[in-house]
Amino acid sequence: MDKLKVIFKNNWKTIILSYCLFAIHATLNILQPKILGNTIDHLMAKDYYYAWYLILLFGSMMALGYFGKLYDVKVFSGIYRKFASTETHKQLEAGVETTKINGRLTLMNNVVRFFEFDMVVFIQTILGVIGSIYFLSLVSWPIVGFMIITGILIVFVCFYFSPKLAGVAKLTNDVSEEQTEIVSSRKVNRINNLLRRSRLLQIKNSKIDVKFGFWIQFIVYGSVTSLLTYYVMYNKVTVGSVFSTYRYMFDFCNALLGLPNLIISFLNIKDVIRRLEKG
After folding, report:
1. What distance in Å separates the CA atoms of residue 265 and residue 205, rounded to the nearest whole number?
2. 92 Cβ neighbours under 8 A, 6+ residues apart
3. H/E/C letters for each residue in 173-188?
């Protein structure tokens, strides 16, 4: 994984700035359910001044999202260009077949995506879990306890299905690497076989993904529905507090759902780097 270290070392200032912008945006997003819930309660009490906090929050989120997106595209597209150029030169010097190099150009993007997307998911997971637990603890500690149990179940399901999805991603990388060489052969039977393999991989990935989604929905909806019912029945609540509690329970679960993407991406990056170093 030395290639990741080299990319970060050469671009750490711009990468860190990107993460800081995202962290601020993610923090504002965590505050959104609380402020929106409070705004609802204030409006019902005929207190309209509090709505300015919500307007300020949404305005800040929109501005950060706009400038952050433009910045990320500029930074990470530049990083990919430099990385792909360097790696392609190494492949040429090592005498790797042109058809393989062409296929690997697409795979190289997965390495840069680690910084552009995977680390963002990691930050979002950490902030989302901590922020949700904090605001839920202000409401009810029993809810926090049951949400942690729910989180453990989600993590277990993620770790069970992620290696299976990563295995399909590895086979898909094989197809991407071989595609140019097979098409260049101009043999219809080989091209048809390639298309058949790609279709079978899509079906296999879909079957695993459907099973994964079923168990996650079962855990999340069952837990959130049960806990929200408990909260409404056994606590003194307002419309705003019910809304914000509901959102934070879902936000907690959604934050943890970033785990399978991280696991799959990490295993996929290891596979891509192995291919680049293999020659």
Report:
1. 15
2. 101
3. HHHHHHHHHHHHHCCH
Whose structure tokens read 């993460």? Answer: 19
Residues whose CB falls within 8 Å of the CB of residue 180, separated by 6 or more in sequence, listed in order: 99, 100, 102, 103
Say how far apart CA 143 and CA 67 lie, in whole Å: 37
- List, for residues 80-115, the tens digit of each pLDDT value: 888 888 888 887 887 777 767 776 777 778 788 889
Question: What DSSP letter does each residue of 148-169 carry, written as one string?
Answer: HHHHHHHHHHHHHHHHHHHHHH
Q: What is the pTM of this model?
A: 0.84
pLDDT at 279 over 70: no
Residue type, 65: G
* Tokens encoding 210: 């459907």
H-type alpha helices, 94-137: 98-113, 119-137
Q: Which helix (H) or strand (E) holds 22?
A: helix 2-44
- From the list 172, 171, 185, 176, the residue with the least C-alpha distance to 100 is 176
Domains of the chain: 2-278 (1.20.1560.10)
Asked if 127 and 29 touch (Cβ cutoff 8 Å), the reply is no
Q: What is the mean pLDDT of residues 66-72?
A: 94
Report d(CA 100, CA 181) in Å as an integer: 7
Surface-to-core class of residue 16, CB atoms within 10 Å of its CB (0-12 exposed, 13-18 middle, 19+ buried):
exposed
